[in-house]
Amino acid sequence: MGRKLDPSRKEKRGPGRKARKQRGAEVELARFLPPVKEQVSPQKEKHAVKAAGQAARGRSGFSDSNSKWLAPAKAKKIQSKGNHVELSSDGEVEESNWEMEEEDGSSEEEMVDDYGASSSEEEELLPIEKAALKQKSDSEEEEEEEEEEEEEEASESTSKQKMGQEEENPDLQLNLDIDEQFKLPTNEEPPDLHVIHQRIKGNLEVLQDFVVKREEGRTRQEYLAVLRRDMAAYYSYSDFLLTKLMDIFPLPELINFLEANEVPRPVTIRTNTLKTRRRDLAQALINRGVNLDPLGKWSKTGLVIYDSSVPIGATPEYLAGHYMLQGASSLLPVMALAPQENERILDMCCAPGGKTSYIAQLMKNTGMILANDSNAERLRSVVGNLHRLGVTNAVVSNCDGRQFPKVLGGFDRVLLDAPCSGTGVISKDPAVKTNKDEKDILRCAHLQKELILSAIDSVNAASETGGYIVYCTCSIMVEENEWVVDYALKKRNVRLVATGLDFGKEGFTRFKDRRFHPSLKSTRRFYPHTHNMDGFFIAKFKKFSNAIPQAQKEAATPSAVPDTVVEPPPKKKKLEGSKADKEQKLPQPALKKKRSLQSQRRPLKA
């Protein structure tokens, strides 16, 4: 039967935390405490009411005539010689060495049957049901305790907040005053991105209301220098590029532009109407788990992709040529060109073929398109895309665009997407932030001027339906856009016309100390922070005469005359010995004529 222990020798211990959760803990606790007048807490009153309700419900079950016989008798729990072991709700073994007498009005009445086992109203319940009842009562007690604790904490926190507000109000006011007064930093301050960002904001606020908020003895140029240095450090731009951008944008708009370049542009696709319709393509892609929407009211073929469960560049629809992955901004030049059916069109810089295929789509595979690019490796992607998209009216050529009027001319329309510095697509190529300088911009501008003159010369002004040239770049630099367009207006018989695009910002007619032609208002600029597409510039020309202006010929002829008359100095040094030998062999009259000619040439050299 197990070991026999003498309960009188056992050291008495008070109930622990787990014992409080058990039924009868109050009775057990009373054994270890001196007799004191009990103070009933409101929580115990609630438990007593619940217990009374349970007892009332239990007694209502006895309704037959033998209710007196069925009522349990008053008895005492008799301690056996051995220890009676009970399991608590926590699975711990406890030795019961105490007696429990029934109290009047209590719901837990016990009786002893012939075998010495206890029986009560809960005798009919299964052990699991008893455990559930015990757990339920324990959880109710814990919830009530937590509610009381939460109420106490809430009252304490409200009182602390009231006290803290009274104490912190002067400090808050001081902080506001400190933030409002922006001061230029010293060189000793360490670089911290958070501090730099806050400094940029404060600097912008001062520059917007410079007269009121400026620090005494400081000039506007000092504030601008600090702002440029901070933005270069925070956004990782070169000082040259930031200076250029500060000339183009107002300061608040510049911050929006720099922030927009840190976020990639949405993925857009163009429906190939030679093979499908936009509605059918959208339904097919939605069935494949693609989340998309129409690009906008201005485009009838574009779709914007938000997310996709399949790779957009490898779907069966893509491989079948139903759509082309193409940026939203690259749709605009073709829309401005507005090609007509049965026309002869030149795409001077066509790689990778998105604009060329869009032109063929609008022409419904009629007429002829000459797709030219100076880079033979990039033409591979052009040929692949044209085959995949089902374009049959295109001829691919690999020529230098500057030689094009000699190669082939007489086109109805020409599209020139000129190579540029790429300052409008910084989100795609972040290296542009630091690897561009003044020489790169001027080199691109010079190449663009040569290409635009070649494009204008390739167009037939007498065309019945055409005579248009569209010039576009993915740059926002004025040197590559308005400057080039203004140069073309001076050198050829062309004029600017409306692009046909309802949105976009007007081009500059004046920039710093430069003044451009007033018709440059009809050109269009697109920015990432305003139109959510890559930075782009578009200008549309109409050629009204095939004749080249006279000023161009007069400028070309004087440049050729000095080259024929004046010999270059290095060649003269190499041929000095041979000339001396020839002079000795020449007869005397011929030698005199030679020297007289040399004396006439001397002032020309000077």
What does this molecule look like?
This protein is an alpha+beta fold and 606 residues long. Among the domains are: 193-262, no CATH class; 266-325, Alpha-Beta Plaits (2-Layer Sandwich), CATH 3.30.70; 328-543, Rossmann fold, CATH 3.40.50. The protein contains 23 helices and 19 strands. The strands form five sheets. Strands 9, 10, 11, 12, 13, 14, 15, 18 and 19 form a nine-stranded mixed sheet that branches. A four-stranded antiparallel sheet has the order 6-7-5-8, covered by helices on one side. The radius of gyration is 47 Å and the shape is elongated. The N and C termini lie far apart (133 Å). The relative contact order is 0.06.
Provide a quick synopsis of the model.
By secondary structure, the chain is an alpha+beta fold. Among the domains are: 193-262, no CATH class; 266-325, 2-Layer Sandwich (Alpha-Beta Plaits); 328-543, Rossmann fold.
